[in-house]
């Protein structure tokens, strides 16, 4: 009997979640949602607007090294919520942390170079950003199951940062080059629903 008739010896598709608290080096990709708000500087369709009015960046994170290499995690980076300003502030904090992690900037560094690195021209600059993140678990809104997410970027003041990052951030990050996709809205003209939407986006 051939391998394509008998699947008893095939690898199981099931795998355990990456444990909470694990530090992983990831590459972030932003899934374009087609939403723009020029007054906020949200251009070229990178943002997504949910059906309840919540606006966010749909992030995919691919683990680059180590035991969990090639595993993918998904998280939403909040930009605006009808429930208040807190979630947008959390999104800004996440992006700042990701930039600090990617470029090896200490959170307390207020030098001119550090401040320049924390400025982006558009969300396109975040697409492809490589940084260290901490794994957490959220509940999937579809079925209540646990899912691994990235909520907290890890910056150089963490004792394990250098080991996980591997000394890369001293070089310019490729994501800060001119945007590879100048008009993401051409890819996704309308917002697409994202499974497992967190409570603030309901």
Rounded mean pLDDT score = 83
Estimate percent helicity.
Answer: 10-25%
- Counted by DSSP, the helix tally is 3
From the spread of the alpha carbons, the general shape counts as globular
Number of domains: 1
Query: What portion of residues belong to β-strands?
Result: 25-35%
SS content category: alpha+beta
Q: Tell me the span between the first and last alpha carbons.
A: 50 Å
- Please give the number of β-strands: 7
List the helices and strands in order.
Answer: EEEEEHHEEH
Low-pLDDT segments: 170-202
Description:
- The protein has one domain.
- The longest helix is centred in the middle third of the chain and has 18 residues.
- The C terminus is likely disordered.
- A hairpin with an 8-residue loop joins β4 and β5.
- The chain contains three helices and seven strands.
- The chain is globular.
- The protein starts with 22 loop residues before the first strand and ends in a 37-residue tail after the last helix.
- Strands 1, 2, 3, 4, 5, 6 and 7 form a seven-stranded antiparallel beta sheet that branches.
- The protein has 202 residues and is α+β, with helices and mostly antiparallel strands.
């Amino acid at each position: 009997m051939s391998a394509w008739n008998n699947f008893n010896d095939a690898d199981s598709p099931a795998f355990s979640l990456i444990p909470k608290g694990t530090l992983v080096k990831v590459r972030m990709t932003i899934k374009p949602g087609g939403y723009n708000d020029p007054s906020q500087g949200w251009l070229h369709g990178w943002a997504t607007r949910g059906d309840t009015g919540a606006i966010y960046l749909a992030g995919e994170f691919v683990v680059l090294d180590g035991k969990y290499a090639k595993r993918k995690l998904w998280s939403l980076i909040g930009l605006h919520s009808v429930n208040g300003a807190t979630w947008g502030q959390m999104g800004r904090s996440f992006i700042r942390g990701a930039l600090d992690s990617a470029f090896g900037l200490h959170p307390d560094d207020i030098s001119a170079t550090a401040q320049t690195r924390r400025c982006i021209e558009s969300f396109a600059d975040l697409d492809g950003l490589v940084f260290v993140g901490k794994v957490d678990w959220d509940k999937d809104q579809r079925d209540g199951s646990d899912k691994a997410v990235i909520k907290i970027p890890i910056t150089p003041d963490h004792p394990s940062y250098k080991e996980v990052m591997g000394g890369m951030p001293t070089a310019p990050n490729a994501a800060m080059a001119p945007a590879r996709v100048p008009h993401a809205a051409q890819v996704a003209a309308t917002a697409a629903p994202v499974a497992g939407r967190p409570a603030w986006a309901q």
